[in-house]
Amino acid sequence: MIKVGDTLPSATLQEYSEVEGEGCSIGPNPVDVSKAAAGKTIALFALPGAFTPTCSAKHVPGYVQRADEFKAAGVDEIWCVSVNDAFVMGAWARDQKTNGKVRMLADGSGIFANATGLTLDLTARGMGVRSNRYSMLVKDGKVVSLNVEAPGKFEVSDADTLLAQAKKA
Q1: Which of 15, 14, 84 lies closest to 47, judged by CA?
Q2: Domain boundaries, given as residue ranges, for the chain
Q3: Nearest to 133 by CA among 62, 89, 81, 85
Q4: pLDDT on residue 121
Q5: Residue 27 gets which letter from DSSP?
Q6: Is the C-alpha dihedral spanning 48, 50, 51, 55 positive or negative?
Q7: What dihedral do alpha carbons 135, 98, 26, 137 form, nearest 10°?
Q8: Domain 12-168 is found in CATH 3.40.30.10
Q9: What are phi and psi of 116, to 5 degrees?
Q10: Average pLDDT of span 11-39
Q11: Is 119 helix (H, G, I), strand (E, B) or coil?
Q12: Is the predicted pLDDT of residue 38 greater than 90, yes or no?
């Protein structure tokens, strides 16, 4: 499992864009994790699935509401990563009104989740292998803090916890 001091794994996530801008075409665009994190401070949180109850009601809204506070604490970008396809993540971004606040990044095949060692097997519930719920503060591609939830919990990966860590970092 990834730990504090480790470098983020090499992986390509997908981001759905509805408008062209900054070299991005409309539709899913590849995001090279190593390149996108280089030289930046990232508040990254991951969760089991788009449109799921805790993720939609608590996890994403907390980061959207605190986006300005994260910026004030020196965070360049907030990333939400989930084992869903880019089209689902794009629809969820619209639903959660994340534009300009949280980048909704799709890990469609779970490559990033597997590489971090933070997977959650929800096969018995019809969802397959997903990402565990966690948050991490990343500086220049290196993990500075890591908050991994116990199965079924939402206690340490919330926006308030990571924001407090960002303010101290």
Answers
A1: 84
A2: 12-168
A3: 81
A4: 86
A5: E
A6: positive
A7: -20
A8: yes
A9: -80, -20
A10: 85
A11: strand
A12: yes
